[in-house]
Structure formats: C-alpha cells, structure tokens
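Course exercise 7: structure representation. Students receive a sequence record and must write out the corresponding structure in token form. The form below is the worked example handed out in class, using Anaerobic nitric oxide reductase transcriptional regulator (504 residues). Read each field label carefully; the graders check that inputs and outputs are placed in the correct fields and that the protein name is recorded exactly as given.

STUDENT ID: A-19
EXERCISE PROTEIN: Anaerobic nitric oxide reductase transcriptional regulator
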Amino acid sequence: MSFSVDVLAKIAIDLQSDIGHPDRFARLITTLREVLGCDASALLRYEAHQFIPLAIDGLAKDVLGRRFTLAGHPRLEAIARAGDVVRFPADSALPDPYDGLIPGHESLKVHACLGLPLFAGQNLIGALTLDGMSADQFDSFSDEELRLIAALVSGALNNALLIARLESQNVLPVTSISYSEPAAQEIIGLSDRMLQLKKEIEIVAASDLNVLISGETGTGKELVAKAIHEGSPRAANPLVYLNCAALPESVAESELFGHVKGAFTGAISNRSGKFETADNGTLFLDEIGELSLALQAKLLRVLQYGDIQRVGDDRSLRVNVRVLAATNRDLREEVLTGRFRADLFHRLSVFPLSVPPLRERGDDVLLLAGYFCEQCRLRFSLSQVVLSPGARARLLAYGWPGNVRELEHAIHRAVVLARATRAGNEVVLEPHHFQLSDESGVADIKLAVLSEPQNLREATEAFQREAIARALAANQQTWSAAARALEMDVANLHRLAKRLGMKP
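STUDENT ANSWER:
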C-alpha cells in the first residue's frame, strides 16, 4: 500500500483540526486506526521514564489507567531507544504489553506490532503503537510511509501538549531517556468530577491560599494535597505531613510547635515542630477534625499572625507556612455541635476542595484497577495481570465504601488469590477472585494464607489491612475507637497502618 498525497493531507488536517479540544487525543487515534487499518492502537506520552496512555482504540478501558515503565516493558523500551520505526516479528520473544487487553481476543497473543517513537526535536515525547491480529497486517506499509505518519503525529502531539501546558499554566518537563525512579503516585481519573477537581487543583495551587480538602476515607485526599504543593511556588521547599488523629494530647502541641529543653519531662533538648520544619513550604494536616479545641485555638493564632511559640519558650518565632488540611468529617456539622471552632473552619476553608467518592466516578474504577494491576505485575514479577470482562463488570457494579484504598487492596488480594490457583506467570483476574462483601473478605485472605505459604508475608499483611479497614468502618473511621476494637495501642495501630501502606 502507498499513501497518496491526498491521504497524507487528510491525515495532517484531521490531526491538527481543533487540536485544543478536550477529546483531541481520542480523535487523533481514531483517525490513525481508520487509515492504518489496525485492530488496536494507542497514543502514549513519555514522561518520567514511563509511557502514559493518552488515548486508546480497540483496547480495554483499564489500559488508560496503566503506567508502562520502560524497565517493565521490553517492547516499549525498544521503541523508546530505537529512534525509528520498530517492527516486532510475530514470533518475537519480547512480551507484548497489550496481551490479554484486546476485547474479544483475551486468550490470543497479539501477532503484528509496530512502534513509532515520537519526538519534539531530540526529545522523546511519546509513542504510537499499532497492533493487529494477523501476522502480516502491516507488511504493506513501508518504513518511509510510517516515518511520515510518525512525523505528523509528533507534531500534533507536541502542539496538543503545549496547549495543555498553557491551559494549566504548568510547564511539564520534557526529558530524554534515563533510568532513575519513575514518577510518584498520581491522581488518576477522567470522569467529569475528577477533571473538575484537577482543574480546581491547578487554580488553587498557584495561589497561597489555605485549602480544606474534604472527602470520605480512602478517596485520595493526601494525593490532592501533594498535587497542590507540587504545583505551587513552594514546590522546591518541604511538604510536611502530620496526622492529627495520631497525636496523643500530651505531645500534640510539641509536635506542632516544638519545645525547648526542660519544657517537660523527657524534653532533653530543643526540638523544632512541624511548623518550623515546613517554613517557606507547606504543612499538610490530615484528619484536622481530630484536633482538640485547645490546639485548634493555637493553630488559629498561627494562621492569623504567622508566629509560633515553642512549648516552654516565651519568645515567638515567625514562620511562613501554607496550611492544607484534610478531613473525612462534615466540619460544618462539627462547628454546629461545638466540636470545631467556626473561626478556624473559615480560616482553613478559604478554598474548599471536595474529593468525590469512587462510586460517583464511573469508569474511573477501571482506570484505577488497571493502574493497580500494573503495580502488582511489577511487584510480583509477573508477565501479565489482566481483568476478565466479568471482573470488569463486577468492579463497576460494586459500591466501593472504602473508595480507592479499598479498590487497591481488592486488586492486590485478587492477584494473590489468582497466583495461588493458577500455574504460570500470567494472571487473569476473574469475578470469583473479588469477594467484596463484608463476610467474604477474611475468607479470601485465609484462603490466600493456606494456598500460598511461600507468600505468607504478603497474605498476612493483606489480612491485617482487611482487619484494620473493617474496624475503621465499624467505628465511623475513628482510629482510636478502631484501636480499642482491635485491642491495640492507637500509636501502634498508626505505625502498623503506615507500614501496610494504609496511611502516608
């Protein structure tokens, strides 16, 4: 096959037409699939040593949530390194990142595969992948023709990324290939609620306003705080985290404001508090609703006047700290009942943000599931972790009272179960791997412990996560009450939850 000038002109016009529209990437990939006649295609952005899907066609929805690290995907690494068209033979020994992810062909391996690296100057900005079920599907395209396509797509992608950066007023780094650590966990979601939240984060991040982040437990409020800090002029300075629920009343004031030597028994030296540590940066106060009224009054003074006093010290210290606070409580109701100061509430909620529960985010469930599947694949050194159509339907139908955190644990538990009952290095998650009712979660973990003794640590940790999550759910997400129910010291419970990844 040979592209005529008219066909190339149409491709160029379609790619550049209305490139600022929100669905620009989806339209771009649809045009390419029509012209090239492939069974599946993906447009990927390269950032922080990984490929991030921008648009897909012919692939499972959860692919949009997956993050493909170069180190974890040899074919994508080959595309990134090549600098030119890459054709993978049908019998290539390199695992295909999309095996099991083409609806209707879950049990078949992808046969024909092309990769086109996309550049802006000398910088890699993305890749276009084309897949077909027939081994000779792309033989009719010459390398010269595919290079023309890559050049057109590179220009369109570069322009679209520039527009996106201008819209967000946030210049994303464009880096060359290297192999340091990938980017930290990100906010994943394309639902209307999440797109609106991301827009609000971009707006408030550039300011210096205090922000109150509200949302149910497990929705990702700490990720919102991190995104605000990283998008702010304070990003080069520290983001300091403090969980107010984990503060015993006897040391809470010292944790916040510091103390001087001899201020109380055990104060053997001067110590800086979180406010001093966060000077010129950001202080994230998680579970702010758990602070005592006495500490609320002292926090209000800092927000009003910008100075603190260490415990046992008469002198004041000036600090320049932006405060982000998070809560799973209805603080307006707490104000009405007298459990939270109205003046502090108004100081904190200059720009309130609400993180939606997972049950209100539609297909974001699948994107997040794909993200966690890919994390588990890397963690357990598996060649493949995919969701069956039935599993996807089950995840979409469930209400997720524990939100994103519950979904993460459910995917992790399902992978452990699937590995215990299936030989080989490929895991397909089926509906029966997701026992999501209250009565079945512990049974799943017991089965994992019994079935997979070589992974006893992982199964034990999953059991502990389940027990803690249940105790929290039964006690209105109050850590102190959950600790009593579990017959644990609350400080030990916080430490265990942090080690298990249930808290930052």
